[in-house]
């Protein structure tokens, strides 16, 4: 896509600030981007080359070449070149239009203006003229021109805020920190012009969340990470100005490195059409061979009797060569059996179906004004073939609007409501929540019904205070004030927002942060903590920690994360509290709440300084940097003291239960792949009616190694199938593949309802070993599958496993960045515009706002698209076969002479009438007969999944086809044969008489005849609008031996005798006359 000429492959990038000459010797790419494919000179050859790589276009090009050969040309060349040129032109116009917009977009971006520091002054330069090493000034709400090293800004402590929606779809603001040594440069142009730091960093790559480099300046080195980099495509927000140094430009930027081609997805109907076209082409060859053989036989046995009536040269060709030419003539005539317009017609229909989805008001979410969107037009009918749905839980089945509901602090649960007898009761509308109105900075929408927590806070419980202090400090939330002076939080995760908001309402208010400090208000008192270290969250650690120093000088580590991870880091003295908190977590999870464990550690000043020195060395390292940092994180995050746990509620979306029920009735299996803990996922499964108490059994796989997982799977299969089946241990992969092919049959024998629950540890062992075949076999026999604690990679692996071994059409639906890999792996990806940004939507094929719209997408649009496409294909092939086989059948009546049965103009007229008329009638009837609600009422009729593929594997289907063909053809054939004997036409009588005379005549009475050498026989047959058959059979061109009668008596006698009898009497003379004269009078 991009042309970046480099003599040597980069090992590391070295950039010097304000020195273009130094940087030019490395031949770094400039900031000009090229996303277009063509230019004026290359468009025609490249586009034609691409188009003729398609089999259909290449076939019709060969056909056109055949039609230009006079010896075999049966139709005029324009009958092929017109539709071919039309198809190629339409495609070329579409490609040219798309590329024009790419050129327009490129020019628009390349010509944007940016302030660049050149010769000690700021100058406006076009983006395409920006070079690596230049220093750029950005202003508020301005796009970033290239990947920059952040130097300084208008904000204190070298902060700036950026929006990364164009990179990852997230609209929440992210903070970037400048190095302290560069933030001192401020907006001083002279100092910035003298800045000559050298950056040594990684080579260009597509990792948006990772950067490694070192800045050398003033005899010191400073470590660089992703927090010091502002990427191209970001927008500067809430910051008046900032300066940055260009590190990567143009095609080397991370934005352009991530703009590779998306994997092209094809539907089963596409693959079926390609197969059908190949079979039809083979069928066309067979028809041509049959007709060519018939022509050779006819020419050798019957055709020589018609030579007298035609202009033939003395040198004649053989019947075999005539059949060879006839073969190519019929290939041209019968070319309509291979439809040139099929692909164009299919794309037009798909485009219409996409607009039906976009225009569907019942899939429009009015609260946020989000319509459904078909982001691709090639997969609509595949929606009607879905067999497996892989769904995320959080934000997909649930609302992803988190509310702090309960917590466990020092072994005591807060958030429950008790009656007068101290019995736990349900929260109703009559219950009065805690009154937060007296607190001016409280969130008015937050509700909490347990007054005991407020009493504990007022009584000064140190554990409760430490718990809430941790919630106010340990997070990545950014704060700002609106015009009304209200505190607004910018959150990256709804979970963090819920926890910080809860601490805010209980009196521990997060106020602001800098790279070195965090300021909170503790029960009305402002307290500033020094931020010493930030141990960020990732999917491997599943926890985050901060190290702060309070005003009294105490150093503390605060940590929160998944209980399975954090409990392993606790000090042994926490055993009693750990057991009690674990019970509370199980109770919370049983209610469907999302949980986090909370812990802290007091650090010694000397120990921390030694550890921090090792961390700085690790950050400055160029090799194994991440591994060393992770090891240091593990070292300090130990011997933690448990404080408690939090429980956040994430409610089900509206209509989830009804949607899952209807999809299950449609025989679609739904698998839930979530990162939540097992108890939470199971509870959501029961809430969605995916799991029910009426199920025969629920298998839970929780092995910690491959052997345990295999044994648990074996026991589960024994319970499901009984003891009669011999199970393999999974080592013989080829046998397992053969076994998996039989599972579709075995599934039908399962009479009960079963569910499979598997956790993250077991999934890791099952997916990375030969146990995966056993896992898939058991999972496909179950009605519901829930995978807990799975990583984004494991989600994609589960989808790929089903795609590879089940040969089923899969759909993945999610709303967050952790679902992108799953969405891209499935045949169809659906993104939900939820609370976690637009990452999933940007990677999806279809998008909408609520999970319940999936029911309509599949049961209505998918069903209709599938039915319409199948009916269209059936009609299309029927129309082409009906028209083509007329010429095949006509060949038996015209001596296999490659004549057409229908005039070309008639053919074109009828074709247009039937195509446009039938489409109009079909859609009229379709809209009348189908109503919007009928498929919602009868979802179990959806849509005979894969009926075309499965039905053709049944022997009875082929028997019916054979019997139907025989029953249709045999009566016509029998009638034709009987009609010749019972009711012979004049031509039949002449042909019978000629055969009889041929048998009765002595061999010596005939002179051997040779065929003409003319090679234009097939061309001659179509050189006129009408042939000479009527003239020949009328006898008007025949030269009579005797003159016609002159008297009335002779005329009466002449007319009373039939022409056949007269011909019989004069046979000998006539044949002799023809042999001598060899003349035809026209």
TrEMBL record:
One BP annotation, GO: phospholipid translocation
Classification via NCBIfam families: ATPase-Plipid, ATPase_P-type
Keywords: ATP-binding, Lipid transport, Magnesium, Membrane, Metal-binding, Nucleotide-binding, Translocase, Transmembrane, Transmembrane helix, Transport
Catalytic site: 392 (4-aspartylphosphate intermediate)
Annotated membrane topology: Multi-pass membrane protein
Keyword Phosphoprotein in record: no
Name assigned to this protein: Phospholipid-transporting ATPase
Residues reported in the UniProt entry to bind Mg(2+): 392, 394, 815, 819
Binding site for ATP: 392-394, 496, 537, 560, 594, 674-676, 789, 795, 818-819
Domain P-type ATPase N-terminal: residue ranges: 15-81
Molecular function GO terms recorded: ATP binding; ATP hydrolysis activity; ATPase-coupled intramembrane lipid transporter activity; magnesium ion binding
Gene: DKFZp469I174
